[in-house]
Amino acid sequence: MKTFRIGGVHPAENKLSAGKAIETLALPKQAVFPLSQHIGAPAVPVVKKGDVVKVGTKIAEAGGFVSAAIFSSVSGKVNKIDSVIDASGYRKPAIFIDVEGDEWEESIDRSTELVKECSLTPEEIVGKIKNAGVVGMGGACFPTHVKLTPPPGCRAECVIINAVECEPYLTADHRLMLEHPDEILVGVGILMRAVKVSKAYIGIENNKPDAIRLMKEKAAAYPGIEVVPLKVKYPQGGEKQLIDAVIGRQVPAPPAIPINVGAVVQNVGTAFAVYEAVQKNKPLFERVVTVTGKSLKNPSNFLTRMGTPMSQLIEAAGGLPEDTGKVIGGGPMMGKALANTEVPICKGSSGVLLMNDKEARRSAPQPCIRCAKCVSACPMGLEPYLLATCSAHGDWERVEHEMIMSCIECGSCQFTCPSHRPMLDYIRLGKGKVGGIIRARNAKK
Amino acid sequence: MANKFIVSLSPHVHGGDSVQKNMYGVIIALIPALLVSLFIFGVGAAIVTLTSVAACVFFEWAITKYIFKRERTTVLDGSAALTGILLAFNLPSNLPVWIIIIGALVAIGIGKMTFGGLGCNPFNPALVGRVFLLISFPVQMTSWPQAGQWASYTDAETGATPLALMKAAIKAGDPSMLSELPSSFNLLIGMSDSCQMGAGCIGEVSALALLLGLAYMLWKKIISWHIPVSILVTVFVFSGLMHLANPVYASPLQHLFTGGLMLGAVFMATDYVTSPMTHKGMIIYGVAIGFLTVVIRTFGAYPEGMSFAILIMNAFTPLINTYCKPKRFGEVVKK
Question: Computed over its alpha carbons, how large is the radius of gyration of chain A?
């Protein structure tokens, strides 16, 4: 069975909510839409205080090419444009909408009927995706229309659908595949059409045999789409690792990107969002979110409107457990710890994970014993111990030479370290510094 | 705010590995060799091992507390106890207690703590201790008791080891002397008592017991195969070529199963702190150790070269780390 070639670790899977069907979460009283829900320029508000909006009304426009529009997920009145602490922990400008009723834009096709046919041109498809504010749903939130527009000189050879969901605990993608396989496959077909390729692979880890079976069965009716079962190994859902696992090509070090080896990678949730955007005229304003944790009464998967505070999801899953020590937006390997539960669900929110106080605490670091386990675990072939030490000493020249910018921040090094060293903290520091140095150097040229 | 949550950067989970687990894992892997040594050397092995462990742990504790004045003691992490066992395994079972204590002081004090303690030492502490003793007390360190004297300690009858015999054969240029060696199978399991020979240091008698330890450490993923396998293969190939060229040099199996080679390849050269960090580097390190060992054994002044070979390569480890980089992702663009 296929997998990526370098490094990797095996965290405990803890897919507590894998057996729970997707439930639709009740509407919030107030929905909050941060203007930076994606990589790139923040969106620019097109509504003002007091404006009345419907479900699917555009409330903020893309602020540049690498940016994405934001749509209201509720109907009601704009209360204010203020700031909110989002999943990054920073205060960011956001639009606050008070919810009244549930009135949808007329243009949205709300029927559940599958629309298979798509005869749009690639340009029209990309335009529709752009106008629906679709971004990568796996967590990185890179605007999808940008990925579907290869830079000059590059040609896509295949689409790879990331249905790996290698983060422990998360099951949103898994449930989506079980409940909407046809929509996803139509979405994949549209993506193939958009980048003019005839081949697509759906990479699924073999800890989801039911999803592999169902998708294989359904995919038979869609030409050119192949389901690729993958051996369970973290971080297989990393874009570069997935390309290596599925088609055996390795993307060279930055600034190279996947399209340089002919691959366009999209998350399975993105494929679903593309289907809804193109076939149903439905902009991206809701998504499946896993709410989970060992102490949580009822770990669940909720179809959630964007802007809903996480506290509402936690309530719906049985309430915040007494012993909660950490609330994480996303999975335990790459998710972000949140300061409070009022953070709104955004386009990239794949999960809310509650950890008890004991799980939440890091152990005290011990001296590095040079066991080299981090070197073996690194999926990018780097030397985490060295990058961390040189970053701690501020030797930016050395860490750049040692390819610190190739680090994907998957956390495998720190996960595996017997001395519990906070390597990734230091590597992030180094990446930030070196990134700044590289930008300054390029600006001078 | 009602709830105060912990906010830290990802990853938020840990694999559960720890320094202690690794150190105690190696100690568990040493148990078969320890049992064999107790069976062969009896009370002497027990006294030497216990003294060495107790002295190493004591010196680590005392130095941390009274010289470093650190709050947290590091003796519980198991690394000092491990150094103690490894030092003892490299000593003859009739060595007086006071010499062992000096060895432990050098191993822990100079070999490890001088550089800052766990993780900072450039040389394998147990080998620093052993080589110091070998140079300072050559007579006591090279008179090995014969096997099977369970009740005796410093009064045990001693004899020449297979390695000394191999050296003598080379010096005399007489391959027939090698016929006095125990069979390779006896050397493997450590039963060389049939021919009144000194059996060697405490931990190195049974290559089989050490290989069991290697299997355990590989299974538990405490070490990777690269260092031990590259040492053993190099010794086999290099000594094999020499043996083919001139039968006065012992056969490759005799080299593999005698002296400190197996102990060194499995437990000493694989010491985390003093060995290279990349697989490529580990193989270079292993090959060099294997090569140097055979060179010292055949052409050097000492019958055994493992300790020196490892210490020499310890010195090269930083250089190896500088030049041997892992294969970076993206170096292979197409399959």
Answer: 21
pLDDT of residue B192: 57
Contact A240 B329 (CB under 8 A): yes
Name residue A393's beta-bridge partners.
none
| Under 8 Å between Cβ of B22 and B46 | no
Q: How many other C-beta atoms can be found within 10 angstroms of the C-beta atom of residue A383? A: 22
Give the integer Cα–Cα distance in Å for B279 and B284.
Answer: 9
At A82, the amino acid letter reads: D
Residues of A in contact with B79 (CB under 8 A): 369
Cross-chain Cβ contact B12/A328 below 8 Å: yes
Asked if A398 reaches chain B (Cβ–Cβ under 8 Å), the answer is no
Q: Kindly provide the ipTM of the predicted complex, given to two decimals.
A: 0.88
Tokens found for residue B203: 């931990």
Answer for the pair B113, B163: CB distance below 8 angstroms, yes or no.
Answer: no
Q: What backbone torsions phi and psi does residue A315 show, to the nearest 5 degrees?
A: -60, -45
Asked whether the beta carbons of residue B10 and residue A362 sit closer than 8 angstroms, the reply is no
b/e map A82-109, b = 16+ CB within 10 Å? eebbbbeeeebbbbbbebeeeeebeebe
Averaged pLDDT, A400-409: 94
The pairing of strands A44-45 and A58-61 is: antiparallel
A302 has pLDDT over 90 = yes
Q: In terms of Cα–Cα distance, which of A31, A24, A25, A23 is closest to A100?
A: A31
Question: Which residues have C-beta within 8 Å of that of residue A258, sequence separation ≥ 6?
Answer: A239, A240, A243, A251, A264, A265
Question: pTM value?
Answer: 0.91
3-state class (DSSP) for residue A138: coil
Residue A111, C-beta contacts closer than 8 angstroms, at least 6 positions apart: none
**Cis ω on the peptide bond leading into residue A299 (within 30° of 0)?**
no
